[in-house]
Amino acid sequence: MTTKRNVALVATGVAIVAGAAFASAAPANGERRAAEIFRGMASKLTQSKTVQVDAERQMDPVLARQTGMPERASLDVAVMRPDLMRVRTVAANDVRVLLADGQKVTVLDEKMNLYASVPLSGSIDDVSDALEKRFGFAPPLGELLSNDPQRSIGERTRSMAYGGETTIDGKRHHRLLLKGERADAELTVSAEEQLPKLMVVTFKDTPGSPKLRFTFSGWRLGAPMERSDFAFDPPKGARQVEMVPVEALEPPSASQEPAATPPARQGNSGKPERRGR
Amino acid sequence: MITTKGKRRKLLALLLAVAEPCAAAGITGVAVLLSSTVAAAQTAWGVSRRTARRTSRRTVGRQEAIYHGGAAYPYIYSLPLGYRTVVVGGTTYYEAEGERYEAKIVEGQTVYVQVP
């Protein structure tokens, strides 16, 4: 169903673009310019075997409440193509690490010293898709840093336009305006470096149209990295917990049993036992 | 009778037929934009979908919970103040306010599921 919808969206995009290309030069030029800038950015990112970037993430309170995520966080992202990714997210009172080592994905909660690992192999793109589908979340900035951002991002976009130039820290930047089904985004790309500087996403399907903002800094393309940099070594005393599949978050139908392990108090019999209060 | 689906297929075929020669002739845009329309990053879309799911749950008045065997096990995102950690049978639990919780990862976040 999703694939069909994506195909339909792509087809719609072709119709719009094809029509514009022949009917009116001005809109086509704007879209074309935006596409060229994005393509240049994507090409620069994907041509580098390793990518590192720091990002500041800020979201409006309503989003933080709805997602259970902190309003402000600092992200340290490292990618080694095609299959390795590490994201360390530091927020007030919370440090989280996500590691994809090509064979499994691990989420580590440093503060609580617990982690969950699930076997997921393949490229960053495969792992992002599988995580989203099976566990209901995706690596931060996973699509932007994927091996094929044009595919992974393009699938979810209805249209794109060029929003003009802006100056940040005395440097020229391009503004790309993106429209999606549930959210719109403005991506600001450095004219000189061809790398993202800002991204502001507006969730138009949520009351109040809250925003999510990323500010990027310290891009490091081609920095030396080893596969071992992405290996997970549990910290001393860390406890392994379950990563709950997304189907266990909805009430099951009569014929469907969720895959999650129910929480159970351990007793001598190994069965859940009611404890006196 | 031509169905809507059939019309869509014909339109797509026509557009692709137009797009390919345009690209071959160096006319910028059509083929390029086929594959380069953009959106935001994964997090943004991930947040969007997660928000939609949770809004849906709240709209129908359900507490966030893990479901198993027809039973719902509610969870919270942070432990009550003054919780203590206990290990029983090799499993770590957290106790607070007369309740016992077990940690799990739900949608990338640490949650604490109330143990019956």
In summary, what is this structure?
With 277 residues, chain A is α+β, with helices and mostly antiparallel strands.
Describe the structure.
The complex is a heterodimer of chains A (277) and B (116). Chain A has 277 residues and is of the alpha+beta class. In chain A, 25% of the residues lie in helices and 36% in strands. Chain A has five helices and 13 strands. In chain A, strands 7-8-9-10-11-1-2-3-4-5-6-12 form a twelve-stranded mixed β-sheet. Chain B has 116 residues and is of the alpha+beta class. Chain B contains three helices and six strands; from the N terminus they run αααββββββ. Chain B has a six-stranded antiparallel β-sheet with strand order 1-2-6-5-4-3, with no helix packed on it. In chain B, strand 3 and strand 4 (91-96) form a beta hairpin. The longest helix of chain B has 21 residues, at 4-24. Chain B is globular, with a radius of gyration of 26 Å. The interface between A and B is large, with 96 and 72 residues. Strand 13 (242-244) of chain A pairs parallel with strand 5 of chain B.
- Given helix and strand content, the structural type of chain B is alpha+beta
Major interchain interface with per-chain residue totals: A-B, 96 and 72 residues
Radius of gyration based on Cα positions of chain B: 26 Å
Proportion of beta-strand residues of chain A: 35-45%
Shape of chain A: globular
What series of H and E elements makes up the topology of chain A? HHEHEEEEEHHEEEEEEE
What is the number of helical segments of chain B per DSSP (H or I, 4+ residues)?
3
Low-confidence stretches of chain B: 11-43
Number of strands of chain A: 13
User: Which residues of chain A form runs of ≥5 with pLDDT under 50?
Assistant: 1-27, 267-277
Estimate percent helicity of chain A. Answer: 25-40%
* Secondary structure category of chain A: alpha+beta
Number of helices of chain A: 5
- What overall geometry of chain B do the principal axes of the alpha carbons give? globular
Strand content of chain B: 25-35%
